[in-house]
Design goal:
The protein is 40% helix and 15% strand. By secondary structure, it is an alpha/beta fold. The chain folds into 2 domains: 3-170 and 346-370, Rossmann fold (3-Layer(aba) Sandwich), CATH 3.40.50.2000; 177-342, Rossmann fold, CATH 3.40.50.2000. The protein has a 7-stranded parallel sheet, with helices on both faces. Strands 11-10-9-12-13-14 form a 6-stranded parallel sheet, sandwiched between helices. A two-stranded antiparallel sheet has the order 1-15. Strand 10 (223-227), helix 9 (232-237) and strand 11 form a beta-alpha-beta unit. InterPro entries: Glyco_trans_1. Residues 191-339 form the Glycosyl transferase family domain. This is Glycosyltransferase involved in cell wall biosynthesis.
């Protein structure tokens, strides 16, 4: 690789509770380390540093991690991080960045804080909206994960199209953890006898639609598995009563999740909007068809591996699942075509694209750019 890489990565994703954006940041950082190491250019590798707060957890990222500053959280990100990054481009992969940053890029995974504000607390959406607006106005550019997400960011006038760069997520991380198939008998599941989705009460995720679909008589013999932190009690507290054929196993390990995805009849995503939509694409890579709402980036990233169903009509989801159950040819075709389609979504490809963007936006004469021959 003919690059001189002199930039740093905002390592706040190493300090805090699990979050989807933090997972993306970690996967992409690891891929970046592998990519630069494989170039045979040790100097290039040494020039990329992860700047993290003192409460960062230990992680083997393949890049040097510098613990900088005395603060943590938002205050660290706004005060200590800019000082530590001075003179270098700062890449922020988890939506937030220093408010006054200019020499930086920030990945904004979606525009949902603007388009579906009811999914977020007031404090969260006020601060994140301000952060995104400032990043789009002041920084070298925004990064995002799909053409749909880019169109929303541009449509909201958060940045002009030429300064919004699409870097699709990878999904090949699902191949790293061996499948723990023993979770199926432990949960009383049989292969292709259940549908899988994430347990989430955010309004735009639209999971109550699935619970209503599984209350219909034709799906009485099929199980809906909702994985994640929101359990039966949390849904009931929100006025959503799940039937006996809805299972809430809570959080599962990576290997257990791989097994659940690989052996499901379908991974279901009824979201009203998504900037990318990782779960159905992960399922497709493992050979499991998706049933999706025709919303957001879901059709873009699932391609020919998905059946689409009206996100307001439980009967449509019932019908789609019954088609997959009863038509093996359809099931196998969607699985085959979807798996081939999503093979493009690798973290190595994302890392290559990130390096290309950094090269393109680096100020002329700056420390980051292509080497002269």
């Amino acid at each position: 690789m003919d690059r001189r890489l002199d930039f740093c990565i905002n390592g706040r994703f190493l300090a805090g509770p699990p979050a989807a954006t933090y997972a993306v940041a970690e996967h992409l950082t690891r891929a970046l380390a592998l990519l630069t190491a494989s170039s045979g250019d040790g100097e290039a590798r040494r020039q990329i540093h992860v700047l993290a707060p003192r409460n960062a957890r230990h992680a083997e990222l393949g890049l040097p991690i510098e613990l900088v500053g005395r603060r943590v959280g938002n205050v660290w990100e706004q005060m200590d991080l800019p000082r530590a990054a001075a003179g270098r481009i700062l890449v922020n992969l988890a939506s937030r960045s220093p408010f006054l940053l200019r020499q930086g890029l920030t990945m904004v995974h979606d525009a949902q804080v603007f388009t579906t504000p009811s999914s977020y607390s007031l404090a969260f959406r006020v601060t994140l909206k301000a952060n995104i607006r400032l990043a789009g106005r002041r920084q070298l550019g925004l990064l995002t994960v799909s053409e749909f997400a880019k169109s929303e960011l541009v449509g909201l006038r958060l940045a002009p199209a030429e300064r919004v760069h699409v870097i699709p997520n990878g999904v090949d991380h699902v191949l790293r953890a061996p499948a723990q198939d023993d979770i199926l008998p432990r949960l009383g599941l049989v292969k292709r006898g259940y549908a899988l989705a994430l347990a989430n009460l955010m309004p735009h995720k639209n999971i109550p639609l699935l619970i209503r679909a599984f209350a219909r008589p034709a799906l009485a013999g099929m199980t809906l598995v909702l994985v994640g932190g929101a359990g039966r009690e949390a849904f009931a507290a929100a006025g959503i009563i799940a039937g006996a054929n809805v299972l809430f196993p809570g959080y599962v390990s990576d290997g257990e999740m791989r097994a659940l995805q690989a052996h499901a009849l379908a991974v279901c995503t009824p979201s009203l909007t998504e900037g990318f939509g990782m779960p159905p694409v992960e399922g497709l890579l493992l050979g499991t068809p998706a049933v999706i709402a025709p919303c957001g980036a879901l059709p873009e990233v699932c391609g020919p591996g998905a059946l689409q169903a009206d996100p307001r009509d439980p009967a449509a989801w019932e019908a789609a699942l019954l088609r997959l159950r009863d038509d093996k040819g359809l099931h196998d075709r969607l699985a085959r075509d979807g798996q081939a389609f999503v093979a493009r979504f690798t973290w190595q490809a994302a890392a290559r694209r990130l390096l290309d963007v950094i090269d393109a936006v680096a100020p002329s004469g700056g420390k980051t750019g292509r080497r002269a021959p």
